[in-house]
Design goal:
Elements (H helix, E strand, L loop, with lengths): L7 E6 L3 H6 L7 E5 L9 H14 L6 E5 L8 H9 L5 E4 L5 H13 L7 E6 L2 H5 L1 H5 L5 E6 L1 H8 L11 H13 L3 E4 L8 H14 L3 E4 L5 H7 L4 H19 L5 E3 L2 E3 L1 H17 L4
Parallel strand pairs: 1-2, 1-8, 2-3, 3-4, 4-5, 5-6, 6-7, 7-8
Antiparallel strand pairs: 9-10
Helix pairs in contact: 3-4, 11-12
Length: 288
């Protein structure tokens, strides 16, 4: 389901058994159990075992469980994908995706390992080439459900600064959002690295929401609340959406194509937006 809540998606280091356990109690919409950047080479095999065991054990409730694997061009990628295929996770996140062929290679490994049809692929967009080829990638696999911005790696390759307004990333954000939306995918914003900068995190979350992201990837549980708040509708917004849906239904029943709510013209496209907003609110328990 592409429209499930993904306001807050938290990276959890796969080598840290306590973190994998704690993740079962955190109010994040999604969890990325990480075998890649967060794990040193000597800990890769142990992390894989722990992540697979954690996913198989379950207990994560409604949280979406995603395993970030190492790339197939590394010594660990093939074993990661094979192990993740049947561990019970909702999705596998591929790092540094730059071609549709990379998705197809991962699909072949997953299929050979017996992955169910329901196992989704997520793709990290974190290199200049990945941004420039994202239109091809976004259309590259029927398993693909989500694009994830990797702003740390992207900043390194672009040689750009992490400014408060994130202006250096806006071109990349725009291309990835366009490709994601054109193909019906979810799109997640990159991480906020400064754990002591609550105001900056809140601003980045608001900016991400305004740009059109579905949610934000996070590196610490303390960041969950800010993301959940920013990417969820307010009770007032939900109430207005319900009024809009009701008014449009009334107008349609009376044979009118358009109606006015709160002084604004309402057309079918506004109703579609309102329905999505209400569905998100219901999924995360916001009344309105």
């Amino acid at each position: 389901m592409h429209d499930r809540p993904r306001r807050s998606v938290l990276y959890m280091p796969g080598a840290n058994a306590r973190a994998l356990e704690k993740a079962r109690t955190l109010p994040a919409d999604g969890l990325i159990l990480d075998l890649e950047d967060a794990v040193t080479p000597e800990a890769k095999a142990q992390a894989r075992e722990q992540v697979v065991a954690a996913a198989q054990a379950g207990g994560y409730g409604r949280r979406e469980v995603v395993v970030r694997v190492n790339g197939l061009d590394t010594p660990w990628g093939h074993a990661d994908l094979t192990a993740a295929a049947t561990c019970g996770a909702d999705a596998v996140l591929l790092p540094k995706v730059e071609t549709a062929e990379a998705l197809r290679q991962a699909e072949r490994v997953l299929a050979a390992a017996g992955a169910p049809e329901s196992l989704a692929l997520w793709a990290m967009v974190e290199t200049p080439r990945g941004v420039l080829t994202v239109a091809e990638v976004a259309a590259g696999s029927r398993r693909l459900a989500c694009l994830v911005m990797g702003t740390s790696d992207l900043a390194k390759d672009l040689r750009c600064a992490h400014t408060p307004d994130r202006l250096p990333f806006l071109a990349s954000f725009g291309l990835v959002l366009l490709a994601g939306r054109a193909n019906g995918l979810a799109v997640l914003d990159g991480v906020h690295l400064d754990l002591d900068d609550a105001d900056g995190l809140a601003a980045a979350c608001r900016q991400g929401r305004d740009l059109g992201f579905d949610g934000k990837t996070l590196i610490h549980p303390n960041q969950i609340e800010a993301a959940n708040r920013a990417f969820a509708p307010t009770p007032d917004e939900v109430a207005r959406a319900r009024r809009l849906i009701a008014a449009h239904a009334e107008a349609t029943a009376a044979g009118k194509g358009i109606t006015v709510v709160d002084g604004k013209l309402v057309e079918a496209l506004h109703v579609e937006q309102a329905r999505r907003l209400v569905a998100l609110a219901e999924a995360v328990g916001i009344a309105g």
